[in-house]
Amino acid sequence: MAVAALLRRGALSSSCRHDVYIRCLLSDSDLHPLVNSANLNFWRGNHNSGKFDFTDMTHPHLWYPNAREKKRNVFLHVGPTNSGKTHNALKRLEASSSGVYCGPLRLLAREVAERLNKASVPCNLITGQEREEIEGAKHSSVTVEMADVTTEYQCAVIDEIQMVGCRTRGCSFTRALLGLCSDELHVCGDPAVVPIIQRLLEATDDVVTIQYYERLSPLVPLKSTLGSFSNIKAGDCMVTFSRREIYKLKKKIEMAGNHLCSVVYGSLPPETRTKQATMFNDEASDLNVLVASDAIGMGLNLNISRIIFSTLKKFDGICTRELTVPEIKQIAGRAGRYGSKFPVGEVTCLDAEDLPLLHSSLKSPSPIIERAGLFPTFDLLSVYSRLHGTDFLHPILERFLDKAKLSPDYFIADCEDMLKVAAIVDELPLALHDKYVFCQSPVDVRDDISTQGLTQFAENYAKKGTVRLKEIFTPGTLRVPTTHNQLQELESVHKVLELYVWLSYRFDDSFPDRELAAYQKSICSMLIEEYLERSGWQQQGQRRVLRTPRKLRREYDALQLRGYFREIDARSK
């Protein structure tokens, strides 16, 4: 496709407010604008000599003086999937005079914002790629990386807190846990997180209360496998772990009986995932079976009767391995949602050899989470770069992390992807702060088109200071994919458009085409949805037509027209 070719033209170059301390001795004057006075006061209390050991990461709770000025009431809501723990926390948030919800996904943040606004509690939505501000709102629903640790709230909620143990994003959850300045802090997640949360909060002088929850509806592991695909029934969800396998299973199910399938997987645009889930949940829809990856584990409300694992192995980016106990429980727990038309959830496999692992995992507690993630802010990296007389981010990061010291309760978050981006931007004449922002961006470094899109954005920004979308992307070139490869390319283009929107919120006027990028992003989503519709079940050579394509086509045409006029307007300026 033309867009993909445009994005491929440049070859790659060679090689959350989270704080890290570096091994160097500095006086107060050396730190002047980089560290605020409140933090200095806390640090002086732990470094009586007046000098600072910046590699000492053993007291990260001191990085958040606003939160330390409060004696927070922390409520741990812990239990399995579908136990009502987050629901109860959100009721407290709704009743508060001010508050914030911090979730792991944009879908969850949007869902909570919509819930609060519907309950007449004005609530902003703030994610890396979205800003929907409501006049007079004192509540916000945010992705955890966007949590504001400087604002005071009456109530704060952190969802899926077990992700403090995530090797890539755990640092963001640690920052929210230690840094949110709220009278009440409600923390929701798996019981496996309780010991580490208790240890981390021993130093904060917070009052901690633990509330345990039980599942609200039964979950029954079946003793037999699915057998024939003709045994698929409405409400089933087949789970697998690759895009190609998802579409193979979708085709097999649709050819075996009277069912059409929705699909949900991680690289689908969030809007498409939501619409696919909505159609699956709609009793009037023809799409009554779901084929999905582990992306269904959180973030979507799904009316699933039975989870069917096609396999209990997945490739995790490094190797193919068996699913862990928490992964199996998180996915299986999506069956039998409380209050849905399926009051009892069931779970089984395609392969009889997988049944023993499935049954044993559902009976087992999740392994205790031993450590929480940490990562440095730009402020401390900037100090370190000044000491070493360089503004090359890649070596600064490597040296910094090599010298960092941690307590046994923490680990340094995996920054492999960030180092890859740092190697790219270090080739450009950019300020250290600009390099850091590009490294924090949500680029998928395993996706060539996405990575090359970021490279071209960074190159154009370095050369001109302003990045116009049309310099690497031509509106009007998007088409409905007809093959899996074209679908994958369109998903990649969507990632590039999302990246542009994300950068536009960090570089203000330097990325001026945010609205055009958002329009084109919506068109990408609609074209992907049309592909999904066209790949539906065929019977006797007749394609069964769903109820949605005409509306999709109207929306698509309207967005194309709006994008066209946006482009004409941009050219006239």
Automatic annotation (TrEMBL):
The record's section on SUPFAM superfamilies has: P-loop containing nucleoside triphosphate hydrolases
The EC class name is hydrolase
Task: Report domain Helicase C-terminal positions.
Answer: 208-382
Q: What is its EC number?
A: 3.6.4.13
Pfam families recorded: DEXQc_Suv3, Helicase_C, SUV3_C, Suv3_C_1
Which is one GO molecular function term here? hydrolase activity
* Record key words, sorted: ATP-binding, Helicase, Hydrolase, Mitochondrion, Mitochondrion nucleoid, Nucleotide-binding, Nucleus, Transit peptide
Recorded catalytic activity of this chain's protein = ATP + H2O = ADP + phosphate + H(+)
Name of this chain's protein: RNA helicase
Protein source organism: Triticum aestivum
